[in-house]
Design a protein that fits this description.
Number of strands: 10
Distance between the termini: 34 Å
Largest sheet: 6 strands, mixed
Helix content: 25-40%
Structural class: alpha/beta
Strand content: 25-35%
Length: 246
């Protein structure tokens, strides 16, 4: 069952440098099935983050349609947002707040009551191995721990769809491996549908059941890693990408 159907999405920004409009999305469209990890793969500036922001209802497209859980997402965005959450690889929080304080603060913003929020905070601290850092300030955390905190924040409201924008960007390889393991575990155990953007080909192949290649705001190809490699007679996703841009 599709939980997201997006078609013909277009989004244009004005350039700060030249004043000329930049078309970030140029008719992009995807469908995402319930319970899958779906990867959006492309180079910097391809439109990945803009597409994710539109699908997560943080940004309204200029044109196109988004259907989510069978509803018009652009019309019923306020109702649907409670069923979603997002984590960015560049997330930032108040430097002087501790990990526990940050989770409780965002939990209150989400309208979670005191007792349920305390239980949820403790659960997420354990799930993402944040217990040793619970009372440390944000500015004392390593980059990898900050990424796990951002992921914990995004799970506070038990989202049905989790959006991850470059979740392992800037992380050391060993930390990236652990974070990818957390994402797979969340998807497997909690049955959360995950949409993630990345420009790391191997990461996309490891995590995603299906992948969409985006370039210049357009979806160039979509399928499972095996399907994409078969269509291009490629050995890996790097070769698929090169063939699409030949």
């Amino acid at each position: 069952m599709s939980v997201i159907r997006a078609h013909g999405l277009k989004k244009t920004y004005a350039s700060d440098v030249t004043g000329q409009p930049i078309r970030a999305l140029d008719g992009a469209g995807i469908e995402v099935e319930a319970g899958e990890i779906f990867g959006i793969l492309g180079p910097n500036g391809a439109g990945k983050t803009t597409l994710l922001n539109c699908l997560s209802l943080l940004l309204k497209p200029d044109e196109g349609s988004i259907e989510m859980f069978g509803m018009d997402a652009l019309k019923f965005h306020n109702k649907l947002r409670a069923r979603l959450n997002m984590s960015s690889g560049n997330s930032n929080f108040p430097w002087c707040m501790t990990v526990r304080e940050i989770l409780r603060f965002y939990g209150m913003l989400y309208g979670i009551g005191f007792a349920p929020l305390k239980k949820k905070t403790d659960e997420l601290l354990g799930l993402l191995s944040l217990e040793p850092y619970a009372d440390r300030r944000f500015d004392e955390l390593s980059t990898g721990t900050k990424q796990r905190l951002a992921l914990a924040k995004a799970l506070l409201n038990d989202p049905e769809i989790l959006f991850l924008d470059e979740p392992t960007i800037g992380l050391d390889p060993d930390v990236s491996i652990k974070l990818r393991g957390f994402i797979q575990r969340l998807n497997r155990e909690k049955k959360i549908t995950v949409l993630l953007t990345t420009h790391y080909m191997k990461e996309a192949e490891q995590l995603a059941q299906r992948i969409a290649f985006i370039q210049k705001g357009r979806i160039l190809a979509l399928g499972t890693p095996s399907e994409l490699k078969s269509r291009s007679s490629a050995q890996n996703l790097e070769e698929v990408f090169l063939s699409l841009n030949a």
